[in-house]
Amino acid sequence: MTVVLKGVGAPKTVLITGVSRGLGRALALELAKRGHAIIGFARSQEKIQGLLAELPSDDPAPSSSPSKHLIIQADIRSDTSIKELARLVVETRRVPDIIVNNAGTINKNNKIWEVPAEEFDTVIDTNIKGVANILRHFLPLMIEKKQGIIVNMSSGWGRSAAAEVAPYCASKWAIEGLTRSVAKELPPGVAVVALSPGVINTELLASCFGSSSALYQTPESWAPKAATFILNLTVEDNGASLTV
User: Fold this and answer.
1) What family is this (predicted)?
2) Cα torsion through 127, 130, 135, 136, rounded to 10
3) Per DSSP, what are the bridge partners of residue 217?
C-alpha cells in the first residue's frame, strides 16, 4: 500500500494576489518553503522587494535561466494590467495550477450612509472586480490546460453579517455567489471554491477589532494549515464554501 502524505506531491505553480502582507504573504512563503513556485501580485514595490528577500533561493542554475518565482507589482483592479500579466505568464510558461484570489480590503467601521462613495468603490473594485479580472484572464488558460483549482478567499462575513462593515460583507457575499455560479460554468478538470480563512490577526481585522485582534492567531501560524488545505483541494470540491 502506498502512503501519500497530505500536502505533499509534485511541485505546483501557485498564483496568489495580495502577497505584500497578511495572509497572502504568509501563504506565499509557506508554499515556497515547500518547494512550490509562486506567482505573486501586489501593489507595493517596496513590500515586494521585502518578500523576494525572504523567499527561498532558487536552485543553482545558469544566469540565463528564469527565476523560479515571479513576484510582480500589479493592481488587480485594472483589467488591462491583469490581461498583460496573463500574457506574461503564458510567455514564460507559468500557467498556474492553483490560483488564490486573496487580495482584499475593508471599509473603516461606519454606518453605510456614512461610508464615502470612494471608499465603498474601493472595496467593491478590489474584492469583487479584482477577482473577476483574474477569472476573466486566467480561467481560459486553466481551461486550455484542462486542469486547475481557483480559491476565492471569502470570509465569515460572506456567510453572516455585522454592523458597520456593510460594504465588506456585501463584497464577500458576492464572492460566495460568484463562486457558486462560476462553478456551474467550468468544464471537467477545473474547479473553484470559496474559502473562509477563519479569524486571523491581520491589518484588516485590526481595522475592525482594534487591539483585540491580537487575541487571534497570526498569519504565520495560520499558513501551514492553510497551505496543506489548499494543496489538497480537488475538482470534487467545485462550488463548495469551505473554511480552513
Assistant:
1) Belongs to the short-chain dehydrogenases/reductases (SDR) family.
2) 140
3) 200
Q: What is the pLDDT of residues 68-102, one digit of tens each?
A: 999 999 999 999 999 999 999 999 999 999 999 99
Closest by Cα among 7, 84, 12 to 41: 84
- Cβ–Cβ < 8 Å for 110, 118: no
- List residues with catalytic annotation: 168
List of residues 6+ apart from 215 with CB closer than 8 A: 201
The DSSP result for 56-104, as a single string, is PPPPS--TTSPPS-EEEE--TT-HHHHHHHHHHHHHTT---SEEEE---
Collapse the DSSP code of 151 into the 3-class scheme (helix H, G, I; strand E, B; otherwise coil) and give the result: strand
Instruction: Please state the pTM of the whole predicted model.
Output: 0.91
Using the 8-state DSSP alphabet, how is residue 154 labeled?
Answer: -
| Residue % of the chain over a pLDDT of 70 | 92
Give residue-wise pLDDT tens across range 177-196. 999 999 999 999 999 999 99
Q: b vs e for 186-217, b when ≥16 Cβ sit within 10 Å of the residue's Cβ?
A: beeebbbbbbbbeebbbebbebbeeeebeebe
